[in-house]
Design a protein that fits this description.
Elements lengths: L1 H6 L2 H22 L2 H18 L4 H19 L2 H23 L30 E2 L10 E7 L2 E4 L10 E9 L2 E5 L4 E15 L5 E11 L9 E10 L2 E5 L1
Parallel strand pairs: 1-3, 2-4, 3-5, 4-8, 5-9, 6-8, 6-9
Antiparallel strand pairs: 6-7
Helix pairs in contact: 2-5, 3-4
Length: 242
Amino acid sequence: MTFMFKRLSTDAINTLLIIGVILLVIEVVFFNGGLVFSVLFSSLLIYIGWKKYHVFWRKIFFWIGVVSLVLTVLSMIAVRFLILAALLLFIHNYYKSKKEPEQLQLEIIDTNEEIPYNEPLLAQKFFADQSTPHQSYKWQDVNIHGGFGDRIIDLSQTVLPHDEAVISIRHLAGNIFIYVPYEVEVSIQHSAVIGRAAIFQYKKTKVLNQYVSFRTSDYAVAKPRVKIITSIFSGDLEVKRI
């Protein structure tokens, strides 16, 4: 199963997640508002039962809540869609893997208009693609979280601080692209549940619930330098020189 998910396109997975969320919202708002109550009630039974699970009637509450919650979740149109889509993608990639076997290899990574000072480079947006300005801009450290969409940060259009610049992005679904000038040293800490990571000249790494750490050889002593911290549920990270 893990092998099959690694072969899936991250964009395809993100599209399925977005469709699933849209179907869930439509179902709850227009067709079945009682789903929220059912989930909350089942969760309450589970909580009550789990608090003192050794008591017999609490065990009954707990398992009634578990069964009720599972049945409620499985009755959702969005969940049925995601299950069906996952099965179809699994079958498709299974037959594809038979024709095009994947060769696994171990990979180890060791190693002049300005925006106002009080305006962040990237805002907190749940749905939207975002990018740093395409013209010269004044640098500010990036610390954002987002929902769906791509994030693009081009460091070639700004002057980094003398000590250390920081980019911190926590994201649900989407790709992150960071373009770094050749003279800038880089430290990267990246985690993802589903996705891929391509860092400079290194071959694209498949990330499945993994943590990737990378540092250029002169990062500790040379400047300018940038620390990149990214966390994605589903998406790709690409860092390249420009």
